[in-house]
Structures are given as structure tokens and as C-alpha cells.
Amino acid sequence: MESNTTISDNEFQKQFEELQSYGDDHIMCVIEDVHLSKNAATGSVFMEKKFIRNCGKIGHIEDVVCFCNWRKGNPKPPKTLGALTSDISVHSSLRPPSSTAT
To answer: Could you tell me the superkingdom of the organism this chain comes from (predicted)?
Structure first.
């Protein structure tokens, strides 16, 4: 897993606003463990519009990170992200290999 560098609040806000401007084609998901008040997993779904499948869409699931202490006994984040794609009429979704944070 790639380590993250520190970014300023201004850099974060600028990036967030750009991603937000893409609308429903870019979905960011954060799964919170409300009992621990901690983020347990994150991931993104990016929509690709196609000409095949009646001009359908395919969802690309990216940047999935799940903290290993939380993963045991809980649904895997890619399944949760995959469920998001069914809510927005995506033909199928492509999932990256699993990664686990420590």
C-alpha cells in the first residue's frame, strides 16, 4: 500500500471540490465503525460511460483500504462499493486486488 503524504486543508478542499464537481460519476465511500468512532474502510467508484451494452456504464472500484482489525468478521468494502454501483444502474463493476492497512 502506498503511504500518504501530508496535505494542507486548502489542498484537501480544492481536491474535494473538483471531485464533487464530477457529480454521480465519482462516488467516494467511507465506512465508519460507529462503536469505535473510527473510519474502518474507504473506497471510490468511478463510472465509465460505454457505447456497448446499450450505452451503459461500468463502475471501476478503486483505492479500497480496509483496516485489518476491523475487517475480521465484517463485510468487505468492495462488496459494499459494488452495492453502490447497482443503485446507479451500472452494468458491472471492476474491482482492484484487495489491500489491507495495518
So the answer is: Eukaryota
The cell for 58 is 461500468
Which residue do the cell numbers 443503485 mark? 87
d(CA 58, CA 76): 20
Beta bridge partner(s), residue 62? 44
CA 73/CA 102 separation, integer angstroms: 16
Reported as a single tens digit per residue, the pLDDT across 4-46 is 667 788 998 898 888 888 887 888 877 777 887 877 777 788 8
Distances (CA, A) of 21 to 17, 67, 90: 6, 29, 20
Neighbours of 70 (CB within 10 A): 18
DSSP label of 11: H
* Domain layout of the chain by residue ranges: 24-101
